[in-house]
Design a protein that fits this description.
Layout: H1 3-21, H2 26-33, H3 37-44, H4 52-72, E1 76-77, E2 83-84, H5 86-90, H6 92-106, E3 113-117, H7 121-132, E4 135-139, H8 149-154
Parallel strand pairs: 3-4
Antiparallel strand pairs: 1-2
Helix pairs in contact: 1-4, 2-3, 6-7
Length: 155
């Protein structure tokens, strides 16, 4: 692991703690991680970075206990069964976290492109593609209308 990778892991742990903090108190977080409340506050506020070992513990705990709840709390299903993802789409930090988890799952598959449907799928696809270091392909529902040279001249 490079120094940059270690630093990214430590920053990622802080982002995860901030997601947890949106729905849990410092006291609750302290119980889960067996850390004093002031330490949790320093991590969440970015005053102190957790050690690499502790950041891995935070990441493991988040993925096991909080990721699914964090996603579920932001997805709404209406009476007709339609999933509304707007709260998830607005949360760029959570999208990055999901993308990191997804990229770990797909790294062994040697993915070379990420395909998404236009509009709502684009932000998440970009995060996943960034983590995997590959390109994004956006599928559109309808073909775009192309302007021909003659139309461009007359406009």
């Amino acid at each position: 692991m490079t120094k940059l990778d270690a630093f990214k892991d430590r920053i990622n742990a802080i982002e995860l703690l901030r997601i947890i903090k949106a729905t849990h108190s410092y006291a609750q977080m302290s119980k889960y991680l067996a850390l004093p409340t002031p330490v949790m506050s320093r991590y969440v506020n970015g005053r102190v970075l957790p050690s690499l070992k502790r950041s891995k513990e935070i990441t493991r705990l988040f993925n096991e206990k909080f990721l699914l709840d964090a996603v579920r709390s932001r997805v709404r299903v209406d009476e007709s069964g339609i999933f509304h993802l707007s709260a998830l789409i607005r949360d760029a930090v959570l999208q990055r976290v999901i993308a990191k988890v997804m990229s770990m799952e797909f790294k062994l598959l040697q993915v070379d492109k990420v395909l998404t449907v236009e509009t709502n799928g684009v932000p998440m696809a970009v995060h996943v593609a960034t983590e995997l270091g590959v390109d994004v392909i956006v599928a559109k529902k309808e073909k775009e209308i192309e302007l021909t040279n003659s139309l461009r001249r007359s406009a």
